[in-house]
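Feature request, filed as a ticket because there's no other form

It would be nice if the structure record came with a short human-readable summary line next to the tokens. Right now we just get the raw output. Example of a typical job, pasted below so the devs can see what we mean:
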Amino acid sequence: MKAWVIREPGGPEKLRLEEMPVPEPRRGWALIRVRGFGLNRSEWFTRRGDSPTVKFPRVLGIECVGEIVDPGGLAAKPGSAVAAMMGGMGRQFDGSYAEYTLVPHECVFSLRTKLPWEKLAALPEMLQTTHGSLYTALEIGRAKSLLVRGGTSSIGMAALALAKKAGLRVGMTTRDPKKAAELTAAGADEVWIDHGALAEQITSGTGKPYDRVLELVGATTLLDSLRCVGRGGIVCMTGILGGSWVLDHFHPMGDVPTAVKLTSYSGEAADMTPAQLQNYVDLVETDKLEVKTGPVFKFEELIQAHTLMDENRAGGKIVVRGSDGT
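Raw output as currently delivered:
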């Protein structure tokens, strides 16, 4: 089979298309014919060598959609549609940047859908991360308002859609004033132009802080986000769009306001049930849930896709088709 292998960390050019044997089926693991996969920021960090636990060489890719070839004991028929995500994909074992991938059953979700592969491929990890951030980490069932920092990202737009469906007032941020109209059209109740200091804007603008903040920019804006919620509020750091993992000179007693809670989300597939993922897919298929997608690349164009991700020019979830172009 063809697979994109990275043997040492670096730029997109470090990804090499090579011939590898198809993984051997085994009990407890499903062999999947990969029909498409989305690109994720965590793969960008891994490719650059910022994930110290990942050993090279490695086939990256933490998610895919495709067809069961050998279920390995899974209650799914060969040829049936599935999504696979996380659980060590592309990190502890080879992932989805290949024609075939072998993944443990706990990572596999059977799906019933008529969505084309390239549209379906944009959904699994994006929906899982958004769902887990909102419901597991931020507990939005007890909230009335949410601020999404990094609003024009694919996760940000998915969070807007899910939070509005849950009945929350949602504020969105963008650094580009030209994108404000797009966020408003997508359903945002407020749009904030983010120059790094939002707390003062929010308290002087709406006069009240938010109940929850989904922090997708990362450590570069986290301290300010902690001041965008009131007492009892929760801030969840899920993304690192700003490129920084580490918060220098962090002083908890001074930096965390009284009674504000700080958490993070880097959960697993187990944080979402198969029924919940199927429900989201059904909503997308019936146009009741809109998620923002970006460019679609051929399998042979993975380097170009990673280059676009490096340049932050995608405007939505980047998808790569399976190697046969279907």
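Something like this underneath would help us a lot:
The chain is about 25% helix and 25% strand.
The mean pLDDT is 94.
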